[in-house]
Amino acid sequence: MIDPPYRPESFTVIPHSDDPSIKRETFDYPPAAGGGWHYQADHVGRLIRDGKIESDRMPWEESRITQGWFDQVRKDGPSVLKDLKGKA
Fold this sequence. Notes:
Elements: E1 10-13, E2 25-28, H1 37-49, H2 60-76
Antiparallel strand pairs: 1-2
């Protein structure tokens, strides 16, 4: 089975060198429990603790752009949510 691109379970370092001492190497990288969402939850918790209403790492405008991509994929794909209209 192929790992989903957003959550690979391994990665391979492929050197761009003719030096035979530098080897191609694969590393296992098992995903965190919960698929990594806890990192986002921790970040939001720190923002709330610090009294912030917007992330420096992911400002609202970037969130809107990213959500637009997801909306387009949802509309173009065979999703049962294809015609769902949000209220945000």
